[in-house]
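[Solved] Which block belongs to which protein?

Original post:
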Amino acid sequence: MKELIYTTIDGHASDFQSISTYIGQNPELGHEEYLAADRLTKELESHGFQVERGVLDIPTSFIAVYDSGKPGPTVAFLAEYDALPELGHACGHHLICMMSIGAAVGLKSVLDEIGGVIRVYGTPAEETKGAKVPMSKAGLFDDVDFALMAHPYYTYERSGESLALDAIQFEYFGKAAHAAASPYEGVNALDAVLLLFSSINALRQQLRSDVRIHGVITEGGKAANIIPDYAVAQFYVRSSTRAYTDEVVTKVLKCAEGAALQTGCTLQTSNYEYSYDELNTNETLSAVFNRNLEAFGITEDQIQSGKDHGSLDLGNVSLHCPTIHPYMKVIDERHLLHTPEFRDGAMRQQALDAMIFTAKMLAVTAYDVMTHPELLLEIKEEFQRSITNAKS
C-alpha cells in the first residue's frame, strides 16, 4: 500500500509542483491569499475531497474532507500559503501547502481499504493572525486523532519546540505643545515609549534565558518642534511555555504602566495579533516520521534535534491533538528562513522535488499510525500525559 501511495503522489507530482510554483510566483499576505486558496481548493475537489470554504468566516480558509465511510482514525494535514511583506515566500509556505495536499491525495489512494477520514485544513496568515488559533479555540481539532505538517529548511530536523507568543501594542496619549516656546505645557507620549523600552531592557536581567522581548516604535510624533501627544510601540513577548509567557507579559505591562505614570500620559494596551502557544511535539508520532525518513536512507545522524525557530500557530493545535512539525531539507545552501536567499532557493526544482518527497513521508507516516491501533493508542497516551503535565 505504501507503494501505491508513492505511485499516486508521483503521478500527480507535475501538477503539485506547478501549483506550488504558481503560489510562489504570486505571493499574497495573510488573509489575502485568494489566488492560493482558489487553486488549492479546486485541486482538492478534483481529487474527490469535499471542501468547505471560508471556515469561521475567514475568507481564505478551508477544510477539505475525504471520508472512507469505514471506521478509522481522523488525520489532519495542515496547509499554509501566506507570504511575507516584501520578501514573498521566504518561509516556503508555497511548498508547505502542497506537501500537505500531496500527502492527502496519496493517502486517499488507500483510505477506502484501511478506513478513516482525511482532513486538509487551509490555515491562512501563519505569519501574523494565524487561522489555527481561532480554529483551535472553536474546537475544530478536538476530534482529530493526530495532525501532521512539515516545514522546508536547509537541513533535516526532528519536530521540536516553538515559543509561546503574545503580540502587545502600547498606545500612549499625551498633550501637544510647542517644543521650544512652551514645552512645559505638553505631555510627551514619545518619552513614555522610550521609558517603556528602557524599563523592558532593565527587566531582562530578571528573566529566564528562553524569554524573547522585541519591539518597534510605529508612531513617535509628527515634527521635532511639537511635543508628541501620541506614540505607539508594538512588542512580541515570547518564552518556551504559555504559563511563563503570561508571567512575563504581566511584568511588561507593569513597565508600561510605570512609563505612563512617570510622564503623565494615559495608556491603552491591546493585542494586535493572535497569541500563539508553544509547540507540544508528540515524540511517539515524531519517531514514526523519522523511521520513514531512515527507510529512504536519511540516517539518524543527518536528522538534527529539534530547535526553537520562533513561534507557530501550530502550537495551539498541538494542545488539542497529537501533532508534529518536522523540518525538511529542500536546499543545499545554509540559508535561513525569512531571507531572499531562502526564498530563491525554495523556488528551484530541487526544492519542488523535496516537496514531493516530503508529501510521501507525511502520507506514509499517517498510514503507519492509521493501520496500527496500538501505535495510535501510544500516541494518544503520550498526548494526554503532556497536556496533564502542562496544566500542572
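(Second protein starts here: sequence line, then its C-alpha cells.)
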Amino acid sequence: MPARDAEPFPRAVLDVLTAAADRPVFEHGTRVVTGAEMLDLVARIASGLRGNGIGPGDGLALLLGVDAGAFATILAGHVVGARVVGVRPGLTDAQVRHLLGLDIAAVVTDAGGAARAVAAGTPVRLTVTDLLAHSPEPLRCRGKLGDVARLIHTSGSTGAPKACAQTYAAMTGAWTARPESWPPAIRDLATRLDRYLVFGSLSSQVMFEYAILTLTAGGTIVVADHPADAITELRATARVITAPGLAKLVAAQKREPADLSTLKALLVSGSPLTPDRHREALDVLGPVLFHGYGQTETGMISMATPDDPPGTVGKPPVDVEVRDGELYVRTPGQASGYWADAGESAEVFVDGWVRTRDLGRIDDDGYLRLTGRARDVVIVNANLHHVGPIEQVLAEHPDVAEVYVVAVPDDETGEAVHAFVVPKADRVPELGELRELVTARLGAACAPSRLTAISEPPVAPSGKPDKRQLAESATTA
C-alpha cells in the first residue's frame, strides 16, 4: 500500500500511461491512441467534470459504450475523486433507474447511453463530447482513501442489483497496476497480454481490471465490436470468456477450426469448469486457459494457469486469505459493503472477511477446489443437499457435456432435483442411468427426479448461466 500522502488510484495507471507516451495503448478500428493521447483525453474530461462541480465524494454515473472516450472517462471520474457507478448494458429500465438513484450528482453518456437514460426516465446531464471540449488541466488525483471510489453492481438476478462499494484505499492497494505485487499467475498472464480484447462494457469489473493489467504489462487494449470472430480478425492474444462461451468455442474449433494462432490467453470467468471440460479445452485450444475465481465483492481470489491441475482454480496469492468449507476470504481490493444496504452487508461482510457463499477447500498441494454454492441447495424431506456435488457426479457420466441442477417443488418430498443436461454427441443420457450414478455416490435423495436435455443454458446479462431461468422453466413445466 502506498504512503498515505501519495496520490491514490488512478495515479499508478496515469504513471503507466506517461511511460507509454509514444506507444499504442488503445485501438478501435482505424483509431489508435497512444499513452500521451489517452492522458490528454483524461485531463480534458477531468477538467470538464470539475467545471461541472464534480469532486471528491460525488456520485458519477456512466452510461457509456466501449471506446477510448469511455475508458478515459472512467479514469477521469477517479481523478476528480468521484464515486463512479458504471451502468452496463442488458439491465432493464427499472434497474437503470435504481442505479441512477444511488445518490448520483451527474450522469455522463455517449449517444447510446443517452438513449438508455431517456428510456429509463432519467435526464441526461453531461456527454463525453461536451467534456472533451474543456482545456486540459494538470492531473492531480483527488480521491480520499476512505471515500468510496466505485460502486460495482451485481447481476441483479434477485431483483435490484446490489452495489458493492470499493474505497479508494482498496483500489490503491490492489495489485493490477503494480508489477511488484503481481502474484505468480498474473506474472505468467502478463506476458501474454500483447493485444487484449475489450467488448460489452468497460464498467465490467473483470473487463476493466484486465485492461489496466494490459497497459501495465506493455500491451494494447483492442476493441472488439463483434467478439465472436475478433481473435482471428484483430490478431488478439487474450480475451475474457465465460464457461458457456468457452464450451461454444471448443465445439466450433472441433467442428470447423479457425486460425487462433495469435491466442495466448483465454481468461475464463463467471462459473467453474468441470475437470473434463477444462481438459477438453486445453486439448483443443492448447495451453491458453487462465481460470479465474473471484466475486464482485472480492475481486480476484485465485487463478489457475495452463499448468495447474484441471478442476482447480489455482493457488490463492500470499496476500489473499481463504477459510475452507463455506469460503470466507480477505483480499487487498475487496469491497467494504453494499451501498445503502446495511442488512445485506452484515450478512456478507463479517469481521473483515467476505462470505463468498461458495463451498470449497484447499487441497494438500495448496490448490483451491470449488465444490458448490452454499445457497445453491435442494431441500428433500426437510434435509438440505448442496447442488454442487450433485452436478459434479452427473458431469462424470460419459454422455454429459454440461449439467445444471435446480430445485423444483415436489408434492411428496417438498423439493426434488431437476437436472438440465447438455448431452455429448447428441446422445441424451437415460434418467435411470443418472439416478443410479447419483444414488450410488450421494444417496437417493440427491438423485434427479426429472431430466431435460438442452443445447446450451440460458445466459444472464452477467454472462453466467442463468439457473433462475432454468428453475422457472422447470417449475412452469
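Accepted answer:
You had them paired correctly. Confirming on the second one: The domain at 179-373 is CATH 3.40.50.12780 (Rossmann fold).
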